[in-house]
Structure formats: C-alpha cells, structure tokens
UniProtKB/TrEMBL annotation:
Residues 66-413 form the Amidohydrolase-related domain. CDD domains: ATZ_TRZ_like. The keyword Metal-binding applies. HAMAP family: MTA_SAH_deamin. This is 5-methylthioadenosine/S-adenosylhomocysteine deaminase. Substrate binds at E103, H196, E226, D311. It comes from Litchfieldella rifensis. Binds 1 zinc ion per subunit. It holds the Pfam family Amidohydro_1. It comes from the Bacteria. The gene is mtaD. Catalyzes the deamination of 5-methylthioadenosine and S-adenosyl-L-homocysteine into 5-methylthioinosine and S-inosyl-L-homocysteine, respectively. Is also able to deaminate adenosine. It catalyses: S-adenosyl-L-homocysteine + H2O + H(+) = S-inosyl-L-homocysteine + NH4(+); S-methyl-5'-thioadenosine + H2O + H(+) = S-methyl-5'-thioinosine + NH4(+). Zn(2+) binds at H74, H76, H223, D311. InterPro entries: Amidohydro-rel (IPR006680), Deaminase_MtaD/DadD (IPR023512), Metal-dep_hydrolase_composite (IPR011059), Metal_Hydrolase (IPR032466), MTA/SAH_deaminase (IPR050287).
Length: 449
C-alpha cells in the first residue's frame, strides 16, 4: 500500500495479461500499466492500480496482452520498395546482379523516404516500435522517423565503393559526423556506424572505423559471417576468418552488433563471448537466401546477447517481427534437434529485452518497467487462432498473427489505436509505393538494370 496520494497520470491501461519481459518476471494476469509524460509506471494488479495513480484516461483491454514494443535490430527500411524485386537467389548473385544495379539506378533521398514510410507503416502495424536501419540516405530515414514517431538506431552506410550516398568510406565517415551533430540528444534517434561487411571494407577502412568509433563513441553494426562463402573467401584472402580479422582490428566489444553470424566455430564462439559482442539473428533472410543457420541456442548457452532482425524486405520479404519470432523459435529447435531449444519466452526476449540490450538501449526500452520509455503494444488474443489461452507467451509466439496487434504507443504517443494508424497517411504511402513500382518496371523494360 503506497503511503503517498495517488499521482495523476496521462493514461492507465488495464489488461487481461501483461508480459513485462523483465528477467525473471512471469506473465501477469489482470494487471495494469500507466503512462505519464512518455514514461511507464507499474505494473500493478488491476484492482490496486487506482491506489497508485489517478488517471486522466482509462483503457480497459479485457481480451488483450500488453508487451513492450518489438525491436527489429536489423533492417534496410528503404529496401521495402524492392520487396519481391529479385527472389530465389543466393546472396552474392542477388546483390551483384540485381540489388546493387537497382540501387545505382533508383536510390536517392526521395526513394529512401518513400521506402522507409512503407516500412514504418508495416512495422507499426505489426507491433515494432524500434528498428535499426542500415541504408543509403540516412538523413531521409531520420526525417521520416522524426515525423512518424518511431525509435531508430541509424547505422550510416560505410562501404569502400561509391554509393548514391557517399563516394567512398572516408566521405561516409564525414557525413556520419554531420548527422551526429544534427541528431545528438534526439529522444528517438540514435546513430551507429554501419560498415557494410568484411568483404566490402578494407583493412585501411577498418582502421579508420576504429578511430571514428573511439572519437565519436558510437556503436557499430555490420553484416558478419552471413555465408560460408564469405568465411572461405576471407580465409583465402586474409589467412583468417572475418570475425578474427575484426577482432585483430580492435573492433569487437559490447558496442559491436554482428548481423547474421550463420558460421560460428569454437574460436568464433570464444571471441564473441570474451568480447561480449552482440549478435543479430535474421532467420528468414538467412533461410530465403540459403545463407545458413545462426546457432542461436549455442550462443545463448554461452551467454551471448542475441537480438532479432528481419533484414530488408528485399530478402525476407516482410518486416513482420511476430513471424520472425516464431521462425526463430522453430528454426532453433529444428536446427539443433532439441525441442526445448529457444522456448517461447526466450524467443520473445530476443525481440524485446535482449534486442534493446544489443542496441545499447537496455536501460530504456524492451521491458514494461517503471521509468522505462512508454513503448507498449497490445495484442488481442481472443481470436479463433489463439484461443484457448493456456499460456499467453505460447499464444503470442506460436499461434498469433501480427494483425492481432491492436494498439501501439511509442514514448506514450498513440501510433495505432484499434488497428488505425494515428500519424501515417496510408493512402499517400501506397500512392508513393505505386509510383516507384511503375518507375522500376519501366527501367527494367528498357533493359537499364
Ligand atoms: C551500405 S547500405 C546497406 C547495403 O547492404 C545491402 N544489403 C541488404 N541486405 C543485405 C544482406 O543480407 N547482406 C549484405 N548486404 C545486404 C543493401 O543492398 C545496401 O547496398
Ligand atoms: Zn542486412
């Protein structure tokens, strides 16, 4: 029983279930959380909440579970305009013969803004509130995200060859510094360095990256060990595996996010563990490009932090994190031959608490916990495909569809209410997408890419 009078708050949400996703905390039944000035209070049992808070508004969600907003730890949002553009190909053919020529032909800030708006709409509809983005024209992504109200880690695209964003690696670093100046202290936008992959970044550039990381105090996100070919070619060229090369370059650590990691031998595992490097698992992209399987169960057993990402819609082909969570759980079991590998709660944690930790935001988001940012989603579990609800986490991970997300708040701001978007003009998003679909089709017919 609190000794002080109940404090006034913006909103109280009373729910059938709350999955706080805090380590060791179980699913709570008939519990409530409150939001005030963008922060969370609670959770408390529904019957006790009014002893703690005097809400201006109360929302009763009697069929719903509340969860922290999902965290998509690896995306190329602008690539949503390339969904279905080049399917059923292995990574290098996909990149060299289709995606990179299309990027050279089409990508500019307007393309990236339109693709990012489409991506944000899809992510919000599916309960994602934070994403890490590595794509060309990050300034355009920042502007869209500022308007839409999502949270983003912008990984600036650093690569040794010219792109529509920067002529070379050094120019990319200089542009990163300008972006940092502009967005330093922004409540929802943070920056990271986004070197593309070991096979597109030279030793000289790795040295520049290490200096920039130290000077700017930014995390790094990079595609690493996406395929067995990448590792073999690294061994042939450098005499060591790419992860070892990054370790020798002094780059690994808790602020390094290694995306994919489908190839992990015992030495790689020891390096990841000893440096506390974070791994971002992208199971559907890895399956679709036949890149390999990230050994998630083995990584988690070794105490490595593993987040979950969709990768871009051009290799997934959607940005549905609930689908990704289910896929991760099933794949971990199938690949290890152990049905107990990656249980529902652990899979959900990868997309919430652990995702936040991997992005260096673990003290602010990823849990429904007093003082955390009010990034909250509600999912309606009273549907044919999720009833009966013996275990809410099981319903959410193994049976639910992302269309069951009914409400989304980010920093206390409503983004989706009863399935209706609050900040995005969906008609305009669809119209812009259609214009780029037509433009890309015309260029393709002309044989220009
Ligand atoms: C430097 S901006 C990002 C760059 O990465 C390309 N990309 C998208 N998906 C993948 C992937 O799975 N592996 C490697 N590279 C990828 C994208 O087309 C951009 O050019
Ligand atoms: Zn990627």
């Amino acid at each position: 029983m609190p000794s002080t009078a109940p404090r006034e708050v913006d909103l109280l949400i009373e729910a059938r279930w709350v999955l706080p996703m805090s380590e060791g905390l179980p699913t709570l039944e008939n519990h409530a959380v409150a939001m005030h000035e963008g922060r969370l209070l609670g959770p408390w049992p529904n019957a006790e909440a009014h002893r703690h808070v005097r809400p201006r508004r109360v929302l009763r969600l009697e069929r719903h579970a509340l969860l922290p907003g999902l965290i998509n730890a690896h995306n190329h949002a602008g690539m949503s305009l390339m969904r279905g553009f080049a399917d059923d190909l292995p990574l290098m053919t996909w990149l060299h013969e289709h995606i990179w020529p299309a990027e050279a032909a089409h990508v500019n800030p307007d393309f990236v803004a339109a693709g990012t708006r489409l991506a944000c709409a899809e992510m919000l509809r599916g309960g994602t509130t934070t994403f890490a983005d590595m794509y060309l024209a990050p300034e355009a992504v920042a502007e869209v995200v500022t308007h839409v109200g999502m949270r983003v880690q912008l990984c600036t695209p650093l690569i040794d060859f010219p792109t529509p964003w920067a002529a070379d690696f050094v120019t990319g670093l200089a542009k990163t510094e300008s972006l940092l100046e502009r967005y330093r202290g922004h409540p929802r936008i943070s920056l990271a360095l986004g070197p593309h992959a070991p096979y597109t970044v030279s030793d000289d550039s790795l040295g520049r990256l290490r200096d920039a990381r130290q000077r700017l105090a930014l995390p790094i996100q990079m595609h690493v060990h996406e395929t067995a070919d990448e590792v073999e070619q690294g061994l042939a060229k450098d005499g060591k595996r790419p992860l070892t090369r990054l370790f020798d370059a002094g780059l690994l650590g808790p602020d390094f996010q290694a995306v994919h990691m489908t190839q992990v031998d015992d030495e790689d595992l020891a390096i990841l563990r000893e440096t506390d490097t974070r791994v971002v698992h992208c199971p559907q992209s890895n399956l679709k490009l036949a890149s390999g399987f990230c050994p998630v169960a083995r990584l988690l057993e070794a105490g490595i932090t593993v987040a979950l990402g969709t990768d871009g819609a051009a290799s997934n082909n959607d940005l549905d994190m609930f689908d990704e969570i289910k896929c991760a759980a099933l794949l971990a079991k199938g690949a290890s031959g152990n049905a107990a590998a990656l249980p529902a709660m652990a899979a959900l944690a990868m997309a919430t608490r652990e995702g936040a930790k991997a992005l260096g935001m673990g003290a602010r988001i990823g849990q429904l916990r007093q003082g955390f940012e009010a990034d909250v989603i509600a999912v309606d579990l009273e549907r044919l495909n999720t009833l009966p609800v013996h275990h809410p986490a099981s319903a959410v991970v193994y049976a639910m569809q992302s269309q069951q997300v009914s409400h989304v708040w980010i920093g206390g701001q409503p983004q989706l209410v009863d399935g209706e978007f609050q900040t995005l003009d969906i008609e305009a998003v669809i119209a812009a997408t259609q214009r780029y679909q037509d433009a890309m089709a015309t260029t393709r017919k002309q044989g220009k890419q």
